[in-house]
User: Fold Recombinase A from Albugo candida.
Amino acid sequence: MGIIDHHCAVKVYKYDSKRLWQTENKKSALAMAIRQIESSFGKGSVMQLGSAKIAERVETISTGSLTLDYALGIGGLPRGRIIEIYGPESSGKTTLALSCIAQAQKKDEAVCAFIDAEHAIDAHYAKALGVNIEDLYVSQPDSGEQALEITDTLIRSGAVDLVVLDSVAALVPRAELEGEMGDQQIALQARLMSQALRKLTGSLSKSHCTLIFLNQIRQKVGVIFGSPEVTSGGTALRYYASVRLDIRRQTQIKQGDAIIGNETVVKVAKNKLASPFKIARFDMIYGKGIDRMSELLDLGTQHGLINRSGAWYSLVENEAPMGQGRAKAKAFLELHEDIAKKIEQSLRDTLFEEPALADMEQEGTDDSENAAVKEEQESVISS
Assistant:
């Protein structure tokens, strides 16, 4: 019985030794393959997913709206990715994009570019939204190919942090420009976008630049079931985009009889970095953009930083009165910018608290234990 056990043990250890040899052989073969790849294509062509460069947290650019930053799940728009903002006319697409530019310039002193394919940018409006127009580079291309070539060159330079292209629907292919009115040009724009996105994706990741495409909505004919709405420029953009934002205007905001803005609803239609389908609501004031003070008032009340008793608002920290009614409370925050910044920072700390990084290394057997097992295997096999 002892002999049978002894032979069984030998068989098991022989099998383990073979597997160990195969594992070591695979590792050396893989190391040789990686060295060959790096000699051909450069260091870093193949990396482990847990390496510092890939596993690091994605940097973001704030949209200018706390509610939307929270809905995105990561605190803003991701760097090095493609973003699509689409919606009907006058829904706030350009305003949101200019707000992103203003936030990038303020926080990181980012270099930003605006590719104005629609030839409709208003410098005075951009300045009113907080954009530093002296440091904003603008291009008004003649064709779709020219617009995308300029975009590609700026991104490949590695010196630009944010590029906004307004809009996909205005990217006219050169063949369409050179043709006559009424000529049938089938899927030229879709093919142009598909080719451009294949080139741009890799450049964006390497240069850490964010590219925002603004897009318009069209109606499909003869649709009975489902939504008849479709974005222009083909389907390639919806695949390459890491984040897609559907922006719509809702109820009007009035001051007396005058309409001064509207409530805006943004749905995160696609999100590769956090949970999608979240909805953000905020006010947009004509000529001013996103109503930041209104957001601070609402979120501050929800998270216990501002106390509301009936129509009266007061600060929770020192019980200082802010005024009676929403308008006076907003005026208080506008007058005391330091208090508004303190509330905003407290909200960001609460809403965007970084989760503890998970330990990405698998826990294995202790090195001394591994050495002992290996030594025991070798002694049994030799005997």
Summary: Residues 2-41 form the longest helix (40 residues). The first strand starts at residue 60 and ends at 61.
